[in-house]
From TrEMBL:
It comes from Caloramator mitchellensis. PROSITE patterns: ROK. One of its GO terms (biological process) is D-xylose metabolic process. The gene is nagC. Keywords: Carbohydrate metabolism, Xylose metabolism. PANTHER family: BIFUNCTIONAL UDP-N-ACETYLGLUCOSAMINE 2-EPIMERASE_N-ACETYLMANNOSAMINE KINASE, ROK (REPRESSOR, ORF, KINASE) FAMILY. This is N-acetylglucosamine repressor. Belongs to the ROK (NagC/XylR) family. Pfam families: HTH_24 (PF13412), ROK (PF00480). Transcriptional repressor of xylose-utilizing enzymes.
Length: 396
């Protein structure tokens, strides 16, 4: 667990270096210790110590000998991809997804089931338990080969305690998901907010991989944000940072699901696009897939709704640019991942309302990890926590 880690501390630096080394091995394997040290500008002793711990835990293995540069041939390292597995879960606002991943974050199998609005937690829990059991049994994974369960959920989540504080789409409050999953499966579990999992996936594998700090925004039925600073999550005093969707965009405006009026979420979410289209006279039922179809067919009622929501989202993002002066903002979600009209309107609106000098130095991009961003990030919660305290005997 994270305990009193501060930027620059030995533990934090070791965690970061371990992640960098593992990532270098994953990307460039087979690779020697000397090559890793040179690539990452680390001392040979640091690389040797960390790789020794990773070898001890069977996370990496020694491969064939490399090319000699005059002395002995170097021993090469690579990820032991299927030595251990990760269970990743995402309780979203409309569905639950469970996946099993290997140590290279490759999704080996995935199951999804829809959830209805205001579903009771106990009903959703039964679905979650069943999907986890099915994916473990069907893939014949031994329990001692599961490194951990990573669980992502929409709403407000307390990471340290593993509690879903509030899931607005379902009305759940104070669900101790970490304890529930650990009691049921006897597997170490880590719980975090879905947008933070998305940010984690982008930091490891996506648009945020080459930068130390960026803002990640998830647009779905709700809107959330996460901030990565020095490759670490910024959480706030009560772990509540990121309620971007509940910043105010209209004084005394539309009522939001949170009970207040004028929230960005009431104007810029996927739910808002559907409402705007209905107000424009669109009569059929709308889903994300149908919105994309109607957009490609040039349906003006739907396109106008998309542009309206994109305009408001761009205003909200302009506020983030003006406050934080970031170099990168990454946006993800089922609709914005694939709908160019929506994304382009967001960027144009952000440019219009942000200070020109600040907008000039920010890049706004869509997630590279796309539809798998949250589920991959959920799995990475396990690995990321492992690197928080690599001395701990996590792997048996």
């Amino acid at each position: 667990m994270r305990k009193n880690l501060v930027p620059g501390s030995f533990q934090l630096m070791k965690k970061i270096n371990t992640g960098l080394i593992l990532d270098a091995i994953r990307l460039y394997s087979p690779i020697s210790r000397a090559e890793i040290a040179k690539m990452l500008n680390l001392t040979p002793a640091t690389v040797t110590n960390i790789t020794a711990e990773l070898l001890k835990r069977n996370i990496i293995i020694e491969s064939d000998l490399g090319q000699s540069t005059g002395g002995r041939k170097p021993v090469m390292l690579k990820i032991n991809a299927n030595s251990y597995y990760l269970i990743a879960t995402h309780i979203g606002s409309t569905r639950v997804r469970v996946a099993i991943m290997n140590m290279e974050s490759e999704i080996l199998d995935s199951r999804t089931e829809k959830l209805y609005e205001n579903i009771e937690y106990e009903v959703a829990q039964d679905i979650l338990f069943r999907l986890i059991r099915e994916i473990i049994n069907d893939n014949k994974i031994e329990k001692n080969k599961i490194l951990g369960i990573g669980a992502s959920a929409h709403g407000i989540v307390n990471f340290e305690k593993g509690i879903i504080v509030f899931a607005p789409n379902f009305g759940w409050k104070n669900i101790p998901l970490k304890d529930i999953l650990e009691d049921e499966f006897e597997i170490q579990t880590f719980v975090d907010r879905d947008v933070r999992s998305m940010a984690l996936a982008e930091s490891w594998y996506g648009e945020g991989r080459e930068v130390e700090s960026f803002i990640c925004i998830k647009v779905g039925y709700g809107i959330g944000a996460a901030i990565i600073n020095n490759k670490q999550q910024v959480r706030g005093v009560t772990d509540g940072l990121g309620e971007f969707g509940h910043t105010k965009i209209e004084i005394d405006g539309r009522k939001c699901i949170c009970g207040n009026k004028g929230c960005l979420e009431a104007y810029a979410s996927e739910r808002s696009i559907i409402r705007f289209a209905k107000e424009n006279g669109y009569e059929d039922d709308l889903s994300i897939e149908k919105i994309n179809q109607e957009t490609s067919h040039g349906n003006s009622k739907v396109i106008d709704a998309i542009n309206k929501a994109g305009h408001y989202l761009g205003i909200g993002i302009a506020n983030l640019i003006n406050i934080f002066n970031p170099s990168l903002i990454v946006i993800g979600g089922d609709l914005i991942d694939v709908n160019d009209v929506f994304f382009q309107e967001v960027v144009q609106s952000a440019e219009k309302y942000a200070l020109a000098d600040l907008f000039e130095h920010v890049k706004i991009k869509r997630t590279k990890t796309g539809k798998d961003a949250i589920i991959k990030g959920a799995g990475l919660l396990v690995l990321d926590n492992l690197f928080d305290s690599i001395q701990r005997e996590v792997i048996i």
